[in-house]
Design goal:
Blueprint lengths: L1 E4 L5 E4 L2 E2 L7 H13 L4 E2 H8 L5 H19 L5 E2 L3 E4 L4 E3 H10 L3 H7 L14 H31 L3 H14 L4
Helix pairs in contact: 4-5, 5-6, 6-7
């Protein structure tokens, strides 16, 4: 199974390791990051175009998106890696994402599992020149996900304190402090 890793360095991992080639190009990785955060709802092609090709003529932008999707299908080894035609989403049977698993764990109240999925800032160090809308979106997502992580870890610390499990509480509080040293 393929996996999109968005926490820390953005990359795709397959059975044989990190996927390279055209799937590792920034704009194609950005497509995967957008779809990974969109989850089951997916994103319309128009939204993807607005994020990644904001100042490009529509026909040219659509061609760029179609080429990116084609190259990703080739490099990821399946024509079925994406589902939908108007609304795009990742095929959960073939490709997973750490951000999707993080959000699902939070929804289910599995705070330890969510904390384990958060391995660094969302799209840490990833920039896409010429795509200011994508950059804004990434900053907003980064802030929201970091806040969710910090709140989860703080709840875990308080839960450990209530259970008088001091070593575990200290561990969680250290993670809170590492996330927001000025808190």
């Amino acid at each position: 199974m393929l996996r999109v890793n968005t926490f820390g360095r953005l990359h795709v991992r397959g059975a044989s390791g990190v996927v390279s080639g055209s799937a590792a190009q920034p704009r194609r990785l950005a497509v995967l990051a957008l779809l990974a955060t969109a989850g089951e709802q997916g994103l319309t092609r128009e939204k993807v175009l607005a994020y990644l090709w904001p100042d490009t003529e529509e026909e040219r932008a659509r061609r760029g998106l179609n080429q990116a999707l084609y190259a990703l299908r080739q490099d990821l080894g399946s024509d079925d890696v994406f589902v939908g035609t108007r609304d795009l989403r990742l095929n959960a049977e073939l490709i997973s994402s750490d951000v999707g698993e993080f959000e699902q764990a939070l929804k289910r109240g599995r705070l330890e599992e969510a904390a384990a999925r958060y391995t660094g800032s969302f799209l840490d160090g990833f920039h896409l020149p010429g795509a200011p809308e994508f950059e804004r979106w990434a900053e907003e997502e980064r802030a929201v996900l970091a806040r969710c992580y910090a709140e989860s870890v703080e709840k875990l610390a308080k839960r450990s304190e209530a259970a008088r499990d001091w070593p575990e509480a200290v561990g969680w509080w250290r993670k809170v402090a590492a996330q927001d040293p000025l808190n």
